[in-house]
Write a structure and sequence with these properties.
The protein is of the alpha/beta class. Helices cover about 60% and strands about 5% of the residues. It has a five-stranded mixed sheet, with helices on both faces. β3, α3 and β4 form a beta-alpha-beta unit.
Length: about 425
């Protein structure tokens, strides 16, 4: 069954969805990742650049599905760039010979195979590298060989995997289920795993990244950026916890961590691009969306500011102009339904302090503190639900779709006041 699941995922994945597991496969095969690019004019036909185990540079162009003659005509310019334009990167010597790969999770038609053979003859005469292929069947075999033994086999873990794998691509990511699955995939809580060699622990990290990629297939199809960000952030948290527990050497996990961070960067860029192109942020029916619209704005604001702070801390370029504009247009829509939303607002406050002005930050912080105090007024306030209640639960409670919060008693207690 696991082979069928992996095959189903691979054959239905977009280039975007299988890029992370492909890069992870390269790492497992002994390649050193040098660069993986976003789609754009500076790509020059090279989605991924890596150094193979023998020290030779390699460039990879990733495509989806079967490639017919018609498809070939559409991608021919990219392939020519892949082969004919040398790798330009500080980690690769100028004009060094490299290996070029066309990678696809499908197959090539016979006509395309013949054309590649013919073109390779011409490229060889001109001193260019030949075009190699890495196709669906070979990719599937590699994923099964390198990660098959780490696929969930226990009934509980397999059930968790299937629940996440089948989850609707448009729905928020179920972080609780993923946390349970990660604790089954990674030797992080079970003491008997302490006898594992360090290399086996490192391989469990590599395999986990690939397995989570399987789970995220539908989220990538629907461009559910927030769900993807949630999942990869949780994966990173578990990787760091395992690294600390097992005292792993940096070289055993660094490439994988950098790969996930690079993917998070790309997803945030895609989120900002989508938001900047939208005329409004309503989802579905506008009348029904009123109930969740402000929560969505608060969510997006917190995530955008977290990304900007991350990039600023690392002294990397980020489009703060758009984020500032987004906040200027939507600050009055920010809400606090419970203390699980406080970190989102703290992100906004810190962004305003770092990128904007202290006055902006001070006003927002004052509003946050006053809001917490207001719901804790003696004999009147009901308090705020604690951070252990998900934002989706808070929204359902506000709409009267769930019960039980009243019985818990949040009055007179705040997790957010001290950090505020």
């Amino acid at each position: 069954m696991r082979n069928r699941i992996v095959e189903n995922w691979l054959t239905n994945s977009s280039e975007r969805a299988y890029k992370v597991p492909f890069c992870q496969l390269l790492i497992s095969k002994g390649y050193k990742l040098v660069h993986n690019t976003r789609d754009g004019p500076f790509e020059q036909g090279k989605d991924v650049i890596a150094i193979d185990p023998k020290g030779k540079p390699c460039a990879f162009q990733l495509k989806r599905g079967n490639i017919t003659q018609r498809d070939w005509q559409q991608i021919k310019a990219e392939i020519e760039q892949l082969v004919e334009i040398p790798i330009i990167h500080p980690s690769v010597p100028k004009n060094v010979k490299y290996t070029a790969f066309l990678v696809s999770n499908g197959q090539l038609s016979e006509e395309v195979r013949r054309e590649i053979d013919d073109r390779n003859e011409g490229w060889k005469k001109k001193g260019y590298p030949s075009l190699n292929t890495w196709l669906g069947g070979e990719l599937l075999g590699d994923f099964q060989t390198y990660y098959g033994d780490f696929f969930p086999v226990e009934v509980k873990d397999l059930s968790l995997f299937l629940s996440l794998f089948k989850e609707d691509g448009k729905e928020p990511f179920n972080k609780e289920l993923l946390a349970q699955l990660l604790e089954g995939l990674l030797p992080i809580k079970i003491t008997e795993f302490s006898t594992l060699r360090k290399t086996e622990v490192a391989q469990s990290i590599n395999s986990t990244v690939v397995i989570v990629s399987y789970i995220l297939g539908k989220k990538y199809q629907e461009k559910n950026h927030i769900a993807i960000i949630d999942a990869w952030t949780l994966v990173l948290a578990y990787i760091f916890a395992l690294v600390e527990k097992e005292n792993l050497l940096k070289k055993m996990y660094e490439q994988t961590v950098l790969l996930v961070l690079s993917e998070l960067d790309d997803v945030f860029v895609a989120l900002i691009k989508e938001l900047s192109e939208r005329k409004h942020y309503v989802e579905g029916d506008a009348l029904a969306d009123v109930a969740v619209y402000k929560a969505r704005i608060t969510f997006l604001s917190g995530y955008l500011c977290a990304y900007a702070l991350w990039k600023t801390i690392n002294k990397e370029r980020v489009d703060t102009d758009f984020i500032t504009q987004f906040l200027n247009e939507n600050t009055k829509k920010l809400i606090l339904l419970g203390e699980s939303m406080s970190p989102l607002l703290f992100n906004v406050i810190l962004f305003r302090q770092v990128v904007g002005t202290d006055d902006h930050a001070r006003v927002l912080l004052t509003i946050l503190v006053n809001s917490i105090l207001a719901v804790n007024v003696p004999f009147k306030g009901e308090g705020l639900p604690d951070p252990y209640h998900a934002i989706s639960d808070l929204i359902r409670f506000q709409l009267g779709l769930t019960q039980g919060f009243d019985e818990e008693g949040f009055k007179g207690v705040s997790y957010s006041m001290k950090p505020a």
